């Protein structure tokens, strides 16, 4: 077994049957991180106890204990998730010295499944960005072309997984932050239905949109990881009490007779030629496999980007109010003052602690929630959000899953869009509506650009219908031209 | 629409010190982004209840039990400044 490219279950089975020890697996990936991370800047910190944690798993296996479905599998965790004793900065100077006293539920569940946490992965500051250029730790590079962005905000997770620095990673998705970098880096990324995954211990960005999910190398690995992290959590009252299906056992590439929707409002053109070709190829492939392509209308998607930025920035401005320099995080220097104005204390701390993109979004969100504008912006966005969601639910009465591009172009060059927030925001045009409607969404690699960059296809399904989405993705994956291709950095 | 005075007002509400250069940059960018937002004004939403939580989540309440999951030491460990188990701040009056 070539450990670098092994699936999660291959690693876990080998560890459980003692063909390889968890310690050997951990050491193997540690050496990969050491060799390749300086080129990619994907990891921001490493778990110094990873080998010890692996030994503990080996010891439990030696005693005959059941160590879980992901025994000894090395995972990288996005900086957005709290990890007990391991720095959790959310990519911000504001939290640069924050060491949580507890694990996020997602992390606790992964550990329960036997995962070895290898370290924390770089991201855009507070997950705000589509290029991983706003991190306090510097930008991450795309393993397929080091001059290009890996996508954002989960760019560290995407790059680490793509270059196989770990066997699996976790990202978070507020408006496409799992799917867009997965597409840019040629991996599989899934955002489950809103409410499937506990947000407890995940640094809050926009609470009604955020969901964590797997960023891994195959649809099967994604299903296995979701089984480990999904499910009701008493610590997050927005988690669903619905049972977690055994997606990994039920994956089928037989999509004969399935109805696959195409949103007619998305067919206006304006796509990069390589993205358009990948999308057209996916439709042809699905037809050949016996699926029926049906046109559906979700006219409100026209407004998805404005609604998204209204909701996300408003919720962010409220969530980020907790960073006041009193109980945790960065505090501005006030040593020489005997008495200061309290508002100055907060203002200076926040002005110095937050980066440019975060401040821009706090300003935008505060404006939208301020007196006189609340009804015109936030409330109106909530109303259009309901209309959009209703249209999606009606569309899913006509089809099992919807297929679309993930982004308008493959990975762009570092620095290309950083000073043009509006164009950068419009990059999220295909991904934001699934978060607004709470739908599950994923990206599966299905094309290569002429320049040799991977391109993903997005699939969505109705609430809690992840299986249908995974099956269509598995069907595309089985004939994907990206299969077997590896980034240049490997 | 977004003049310097508005930017200063918003920054004050957000408890956010911003520099002159930032104020100028944000006012131009916010103007552009808000203009884009105005598209939604044309959507007829009469009588539509705003959507906040996107999926139907069954109501769930935890038992109201006092728990001691963390010590005071753990809870104050990340404080920028502290005295014993108290958060220390500069004098504010």
TrEMBL record, chain A:
The yes or no answer to whether the keyword Thylakoid is present is no
Gene3D superfamilies, per the entry? Amidase signature (AS) domain
Tell me which UniProt keywords the record has, alphabetically: ATP-binding, Ligase, Nucleotide-binding, Protein biosynthesis
| Database matches in SUPFAM superfamilies | Amidase signature (AS) enzymes
Instruction: Show the active-site residues.
Output: 78, 153, 177
Q: Could you tell me what reaction this enzyme catalyses?
A: L-glutamyl-tRNA(Gln) + L-glutamine + ATP + H2O = L-glutaminyl-tRNA(Gln) + L-glutamate + ADP + phosphate + H(+)
Q: Amidase domain spans which residues?
A: 24-470
Its domain of life? Bacteria
Task: Read off the Pfam families from this record.
Answer: Amidase
Enzyme nomenclature, EC number: 6.3.5.7
Look up keyword Ligase and say if it applies. Answer: yes
User: Which InterPro entries does the entry mention?
Assistant: Amidase, Amidase_dom, AS_sf, GatA
Q: What does this protein do?
A: Allows the formation of correctly charged Gln-tRNA(Gln) through the transamidation of misacylated Glu-tRNA(Gln) in organisms which lack glutaminyl-tRNA synthetase. The reaction takes place in the presence of glutamine and ATP through an activated gamma-phospho-Glu-tRNA(Gln).
Q: Which family does it belong to?
A: Belongs to the amidase family. GatA subfamily.
Instruction: State how it assembles.
Output: Heterotrimer of A, B and C subunits.
Spell out the NCBIfam families in the cross-references. gatA (TIGR00132)
Name of the protein this chain belongs to? Glutamyl-tRNA(Gln) amidotransferase subunit A
Q: Which organism is it from?
A: Bdellovibrio svalbardensis
Q: Which gene is the coding source of this polypeptide chain? A: gatA
TrEMBL record, chain B:
Official protein name in the record: Aspartyl/glutamyl-tRNA(Asn/Gln) amidotransferase subunit C
Q: Which domain of life is it from?
A: Bacteria
Q: What is its EC number?
A: 6.3.5.-
One protein family per Pfam: GatC
Origin organism is Bdellovibrio svalbardensis
**Which family, according to UniProt?**
Belongs to the GatC family.
Oligomeric state and partners? Heterotrimer of A, B and C subunits.
User: Could you tell me what this protein does?
Assistant: Allows the formation of correctly charged Asn-tRNA(Asn) or Gln-tRNA(Gln) through the transamidation of misacylated Asp-tRNA(Asn) or Glu-tRNA(Gln) in organisms which lack either or both of asparaginyl-tRNA or glutaminyl-tRNA synthetases. The reaction takes place in the presence of glutamine and ATP through an activated phospho-Asp-tRNA(Asn) or phospho-Glu-tRNA(Gln).
UniProt key word Ribosomal protein: no
Listed A to Z, the keywords are: ATP-binding, Ligase, Nucleotide-binding, Protein biosynthesis
Q: Which reaction does it catalyse?
A: L-aspartyl-tRNA(Asn) + L-glutamine + ATP + H2O = L-asparaginyl-tRNA(Asn) + L-glutamate + ADP + phosphate + 2 H(+); L-glutamyl-tRNA(Gln) + L-glutamine + ATP + H2O = L-glutaminyl-tRNA(Gln) + L-glutamate + ADP + phosphate + H(+)
**Gene name of the encoded protein:** gatC
Q: List the SUPFAM superfamilies.
A: Glu-tRNAGln amidotransferase C subunit
């Amino acid at each position: 077994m070539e450990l670098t490219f092994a699936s999660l279950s291959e690693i876990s089975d080998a560890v459980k049957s003692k063909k390889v020890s968890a310690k050997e697996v951990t050491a193997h990936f540690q050496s990969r991180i050491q060799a390749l991370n300086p080129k990619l800047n994907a990891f921001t910190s490493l778990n110094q106890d990873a080998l010890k944690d692996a030994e503990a798993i080996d010891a439990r296996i030696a005693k005959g204990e059941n160590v879980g479905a992901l025994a000894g599998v090395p995972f990288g965790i996005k900086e957005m998730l709290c990890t007990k004793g391991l720095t959790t900065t959310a990519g911000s100077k504001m939290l640069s010295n924050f060491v949580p006293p507890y694990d996020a539920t997602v992390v606790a569940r992964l550990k329960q499944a036997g995962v070895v946490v290898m370290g924390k992965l770089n991201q855009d500051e507070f997950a705000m960005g589509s290029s991983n250029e706003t991190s306090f730790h510097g930008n991450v590079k795309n393993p397929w072309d080091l001059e290009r962005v890996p996508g954002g905000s989960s760019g560290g997770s995407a790059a680490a997984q793509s270059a196989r620095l770990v066997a699996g990673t976790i990202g978070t998705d507020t408006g496409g932050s799992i799917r867009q970098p997965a597409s840019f880096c040629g991996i599989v990324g899934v955002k489950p239905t809103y409410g499937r995954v506990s947000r407890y211990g995940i640094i809050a960005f926009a609470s009604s949109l955020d969901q964590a999910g797997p960023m891994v190398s195959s649809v099967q690995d994604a299903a296995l990881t979701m089984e480990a992290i999904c499910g009701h959590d008493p610590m997050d009252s927005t988690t669903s009490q619905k049972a977690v299906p055994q997606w990994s056992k039920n994956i089928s590439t037989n999509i004969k007779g399935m109805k696959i929707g195409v949103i007619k409002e998305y067919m206006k053109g304006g796509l990069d030629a390589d993205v358009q070709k990948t999308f057209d190829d996916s439709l042809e492939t699905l037809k050949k496999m016996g699926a029926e392509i049906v046109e559906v209308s979700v006219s409100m998607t026209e407004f998805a980007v404005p609604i998204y930025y209204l909701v996300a920035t408003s919720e962010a401005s409220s969530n980020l109010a907790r960073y006041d320099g009193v109980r945790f995080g960065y505090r501005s220097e006030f040593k020489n003052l005997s008495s200061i104005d309290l508002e100055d204390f907060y203002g200076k701390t926040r002005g110095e602690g937050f980066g440019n993109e975060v401040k821009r979004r706090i300003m935008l969100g505060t404006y939208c929630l301020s007196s006189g504008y609340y009804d015109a912006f936030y409330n109106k966005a909530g109303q259009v959000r309901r209309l959009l969601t209703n249209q999606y639910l009606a569309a899913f009465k006509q089809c099992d899953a919807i297929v679309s591009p993930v982004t308008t172009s493959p990975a762009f060059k570092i620095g290309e869009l950083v000073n043009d927030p509006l164009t950068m925001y419009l990059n999220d045009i295909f991904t934001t509506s699934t978060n607004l409607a709470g739908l599950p969404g994923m990206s599966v690699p299905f094309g290569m650009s002429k320049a040799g960059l991977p391109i993903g296809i997005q699939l969505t399904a109705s609430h809690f219908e992840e299986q249908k989405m995974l099956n269509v993705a598995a069907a595309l994956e089985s004939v994907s031209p990206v299969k077997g291709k590896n980034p240049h950095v490997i | 629409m977004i003049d310097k005075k508005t930017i200063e007002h918003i920054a004050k509400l957000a408890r956010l010190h911003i520099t002159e250069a930032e104020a100028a940059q944000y006012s131009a960018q916010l103007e552009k982004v808000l203009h884009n937002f105005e598209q939604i004004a044309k959507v007829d939403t009469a009588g539509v209840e705003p959507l906040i939580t996107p999926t139907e989540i069954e109501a769930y309440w935890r038992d109201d039990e006092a728990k001691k999951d963390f010590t005071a030491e753990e809870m104050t460990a990340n404080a920028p400044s502290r005295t014993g188990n108290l958060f220390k701040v500069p004098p504010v009056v």
